[in-house]
Amino acid sequence: MKKITLKVCLFALSICFCGFTQVSGQEIGTIEFISPELSSLIKKEAKVEVIAEGFQFTEGPLWLEKEKMLLFSDIPANTIYKWTEAKGKEVYVKPGGYTGSEPRGGFMGPNGLYKTKDGKLWVCQHGDRRIAAMDAPLNAPKSNFVTVAGSYDGKKLNSPNDFFMSSKGELYFTDPAYGFEGGMKDPKKELPFQGVYKMDKAGKVTLLIDSMQAPNGIGILPDGKTLLVANTQGRGRGWYAYDIASNGTLENARVFYNPGNIREPGGCDGFKIDKKGNVFAAGPGGIWIFTKEGKLIGKIKVNNLTAANCALTANGKTLYITATQYLLRVKMR
Q1: Residue 3 counted as domain residue
Q2: Domain region containing 209
Q3: What is the pLDDT of residues 140-160, one digit of tens each?
Q4: Residue 16: what are its φ and ψ, rounded to 5°?
Q5: In the chain, N or C: fewer CB atoms in 10 Å?
Q6: Sheet of 250-257, strand order
Q7: Has residue 4 been placed in a domain?
Q8: Which distant-in-sequence residues (6+ apart) come within 8 Å of 161 by Cβ?
């Protein structure tokens, strides 16, 4: 098995959640047009609006087009919420990421969410240390879960964070250590690294990358040939690109974009890719917007909050952003 290795120093786990900033008034952020190209994606008068609040730390947004509903995670609250235009926020499933009986704290709850072709909800579960399928219909959710992927090489996963299903039906996912109460030094941690994996249609899990300090957001460009992975923190913080070889291994590891030493809330986190390959990526200070070639064309800044992830509607005209205790929306076009 060939693994791509990046030279990343493993510093102590240290995430900046930057407190729960109180934001008053109508303005929650601004949109920075770095390149004229952004004008084809976002109109100049677009606003960053709060559509729900009162959470602990929001993540994993998933837009369901048929239901006209957004699902998203509140990790410390161990809850999956839903949001609709008609009713606003509602609890969808609780517990959503840790279903054990022993009391615990930390980032134990759900994170990334995915709807399968047959209508099942899959969840990255920090506390249960697995990717799981909800064993209930979307319109009648229950906290009943079945393991989809929970181990590698006979050892339990750390805390699956985010995932992406390829057109070939192969699941790519990241597995940092954020779900452990003791971080990377937690005695319950069984794997000596934080991995990026691929699970094939038969359920076989293959390790692709073992050298990132904190692999996080993951996705594939529309060409189906390029994998993008975010490394949240440390000396190797940034977004990376890899060629997907015909046999499923990764080749030609390279930097997609290096954010440099910018010091703003948040790290390189979850992202979504539109149909043209534009990347909307949670990064320091908000959402960074790139072309498929890795050119930075704009930012959605979110006023000292930690933007953790985002979701696009099916037509690509509306962006939802999970940012600390808020759920935000930008009607782009």
Answers
A1: no
A2: 30-331
A3: 999 999 999 999 999 999 999
A4: -95, 105
A5: N
A6: 215-220, 226-231, 238-244, 250-257
A7: no
A8: 111, 112, 124, 126, 173, 174, 175, 176, 178, 215, 216
Residue count (the chain): 333
Instruction: Report the DSSP pairing between strands 88-93 and 110-115.
Output: unpaired
As for how many domains the chain has, the answer is 1
* Torsion angles phi and psi, residue 198, rounded to 5: -130, 135
CA distance 74 to 79: 5
Helix ranges (DSSP H) in 45-99: none
Place of tokens 């390829």: 166
Name the nearest CA neighbour of 304 among 330, 265, 262. Answer: 265
Q: Is residue 21 part of a domain?
A: no
Quick check: 66 pLDDT over 50? yes
| CATH number, domain containing residue 132 | 2.120.10.30
Q: Which long-range contacts (CB under 8 A, 24 or more apart) does 86-89 make?
A: 88/51, 88/52, 89/52, 89/54, 89/327
Using CA atoms, how far residue 150 sits from 30, 99, 153, 155, 288, in Å, is: 40, 14, 10, 9, 32
Count the neighbouring beta carbons within 10 Å of the beta carbon of residue 190. Answer: 15
How far apart are the C-alpha atoms of 289 and 149, rounded to whole Å? 31
Given this model, what pLDDT does residue 234 score?
83
Give residue 71's Cα distance to chain centre: 13
Residue 324 lies in a domain: yes
Q: 3-state SS of 100-158?
A: CCCCCCCCCCEEEEEECCCCCEEEEECCCCEEEEECCCCCCCCCCEEEEECEECCEECC
